[in-house]
Specification:
Length: 180
């Protein structure tokens, strides 16, 4: 007996078989033990597969999965932000520490710092005063509208500001002091 044709039909979809083929297969299965057991095994397998297909992901699974992914991405982002911020804060702390170390001799003796500043301001004032004296004969001619005192005071003030700025900058950035 030729079983092959019936076994091929067994694995085909029932709807793909013609009524004649289906009938022929049915008759063969009733007569043939071997093909019947194969058919039973196949149907059992099919039932199992169908039952497994019903174990579909619960509704909203994709949404939950997506949410979990987003949560994890947000967590990673937050970690990166925290890490960057800590790095910046650590850098600032280090910078502050270096500046403090550089300024330590001055901070240890505030009076020295104070007198240094007084001396600098005084010398700047003296310099500005000398400059003012030098410039005043020239100014006397050219300015009648603006009071001379205001102009001289403004110029001296500007000079003092500029020199103060230079001195502060040097004091804070002098590498010799930072490497103390
Ligand atoms: Zn058979």
């Amino acid at each position: 007996m030729n079983h092959q044709i019936y076994q091929d039909w067994l694995f085909e979809d029932a709807q793909d078989l013609s009524p004649l083929q289906a009938q022929s297969l049915q008759q063969h299965l009733e007569a043939c033990e071997q093909c019947r057991s194969l058919s039973n095994a196949w149907h059992e397998l099919e039932t199992t597969l169908e039952r497994d297909e019903m174990l579909l992901p619960a509704p909203g699974f994709t949404l939950r999965w997506q949410k979990r992914l987003e949560d994890s991405q947000r967590r990673i982002y937050r970690q990166q932000v925290v890490r960057s911020l800590s790095l910046i804060i650590a850098g600032l702390a280090l910078l502050a520490g270096l500046m403090l170390a550089g300024l330590w001799p001055w901070l240890r003796s505030p009076s020295l710092l104070f007198y240094t500043w007084v001396y600098r301001v005084f010398s700047i004032y003296t310099f500005a005063d000398a400059l003012r004296n030098l410039a005043s004969p020239l100014m006397n001619f050219s300015t009648r509208a603006v009071p001379l005192a205001a102009m001289v005071f403004g110029f001296g003030f500007l000079c003092e500001l500029a020199v103060l700025w230079v001195v502060s900058f040097r004091l804070l950035t002098n590498p010799r002091r930072i490497t103390l």
